[in-house]
Amino acid sequence: MLESIPDIFLKISNREFRVLLAIENKMKFYEWVPLEEIANFTNYDLNETGYILSGLLKNKLVHRNVSTYEGYRIYFEAYDLLALNAFVKRGTVNALGDVIGVGKESVVYEATGGIIDRHVAIKFQREGKMSFKQVSLKREHLGERKHLSWLYASRLSAKREHDALTKLYPQVSVPEPIDYNRHAIVMSVVKGQALAYTRVDEPQWYLDEILNQVKKAYRLGIIHGDLSEFNVFINPEGCEIIDWPQYATPAHPNAGELFYRDIDNILAFFRRKYRIKRDIKEVINNIS
Predict the structure, then answer these.
(1) How confident is residue 105, by pLDDT bands cut at 50, 70 and 90?
(2) What are the tens digits of pLDDT across the range 27-59?
(3) Residue 131 falls within a domain, yes or no?
(4) Domain final residue, candidates 170, 188, 206
(5) How many Å apart are CA 198 and CA 168, to the nearest integer?
(6) Beta carbons of 105 and 160 less than 8 angstroms apart
(7) pTM, full prediction
(8) How far is residue 161's CA from residue 153's CA, in Å, rounded to a whole number?
(9) 180 with 197, same domain?
(10) Which residues are catalytic?
(11) Which of 141, 151, 179, 183 has the greatest number of C-beta atoms within 10 Å?
């Protein structure tokens, strides 16, 4: 994401947003969207469309290819702006702050939103940062859609995570889902710090609390699928579990393997750091 996204967002015009929307829409059908298709979608003439695109190119919000014809496409910077624009129009987000988290497949910004300027977080999915071949092979939620763009892969990821949070909250200690659009989710700010970077005084209690949340999620028909010490945040009241786009249901063909791996990752961490030993079969039997 561009470092100056708040500044660019304030400067970008409605006509520029219209051109970005045209490219996004037509990327369903083209690897590089022809200039004529953009003009037809926006109802701008070719000269005006070209002028708007030149400004977007200058800000690196679109990419241009002239090898066989003049075509354009957007990447995450423009996609971020389109999602942010939707949130602002809906009143979900009023102001965007600093980056508060960066993962291999996401970037998280702090923000305020709603009529009371509530402190929230915006998570922008980043599945397309890796090779799309890897994405399509490793992500169950893509199914057989191997023709999808990287942007759409991230859009599916955000929808899945929002769906999971909606099913889990508030029975399970997860961030509250507030809104989502394209590849971005607005949610409550996670409390505490990542388990991986914190040393606790009562590790037995925290382990029990984490397993209890996993049990609650399982009873609601959700298996995390990628659980580790990096996506469990702990605080004085307990814990919050984040990063749910790879969730599976107990009916999934690989549910047993995914569930075992989730539990094993957590038990291995507490065994390694706190010398706490639990029998994984007993833990799984207690949960399932």
Answers:
(1) confident
(2) 989 999 999 999 999 999 999 999 999 999 999
(3) yes
(4) 188
(5) 25
(6) no
(7) 0.89
(8) 13
(9) no
(10) 226
(11) 183
